[in-house]
Design brief:
It is built from nine helices and two strands; from the N terminus they run ααββααααααα. With 197 residues, it is mainly α.
């Protein structure tokens, strides 16, 4: 039997490695969906004009200023963000790599759980978090702060801004990948606060 095949079977049959790879793959796919949802939803929500019995009412500008840029809402949103200098060409290229890896992972899960290229995975996780941070900060700095009078006249340090989705991802990583004792602290704190309410 070929050495690569042996190594692949060894990783697949080792419960600890298999479990870890399944968790890593699941977290990667979940993280991608969070990034994708952030890219599309934040922009779409920006164009909400109101609500009626059928749900949100979107301003026609969402169609003419965003969806007109590309037939795919995700690609259209990325182009819009690039046009607004929220992201650049390097970010678009990184996103393409992130998405390609996500698609391979989702469609070839069995192969990947035995052979997840950890160096690639860690680099792509890092790119995902950086992109999520960059887009989240852009929205906070360019939309949320200017439209909130509570921030009038205040000096804001952009590097100290942590978008909410980054906190969600950090919790996901800590709980799913952290050691049991550390991971359980979040749950214990939640239960303690719940009892005090």
């Amino acid at each position: 039997m070929d050495d690569n095949i042996k190594a692949s079977w060894e990783r697949f049959l080792n419960p600890e490695v298999l479990r870890n790879n399944l968790i890593l793959g699941s977290i990667y796919i979940t993280s991608f969906e969070i990034l994708k949802d952030t890219i599309i939803t934040k922009l779409k929500d920006f164009f909400i004009d109101g609500i009626d019995e059928n749900g949100f009412i979107y301003n026609d500008k969402y169609k003419t200023k965003v969806l007109a840029l590309h037939k795919n809402p995700l690609q259209a949103s990325l182009i819009w963000l690039q046009n607004k200098d929220a992201i650049d060409n390097k970010d678009i290229q990184k996103f393409k790599k992130i998405k390609t890896f996500r698609n391979k992972l989702a469609h070839e899960m069995l192969d990947f759980i035995a052979n997840i290229p950890e160096d690639d995975l860690l680099e792509l996780f890092n790119d995902m978090i950086n992109l999520l941070t960059k887009i989240g900060r852009w929205w906070i700095i360019n939309v949320e702060i200017p439209t909130n009078p509570d921030y009038d006249g205040q000096e804001i340090n952009e590097d100290e801004i942590t978008p909410g989705m980054n906190i969600t991802l950090q919790l996901l990583f800590d709980i799913a990948l952290g050691n049991e004792e550390e991971a359980k602290k979040y749950y214990d704190k939640f239960l303690k606060k719940k009892r005090n309410i």
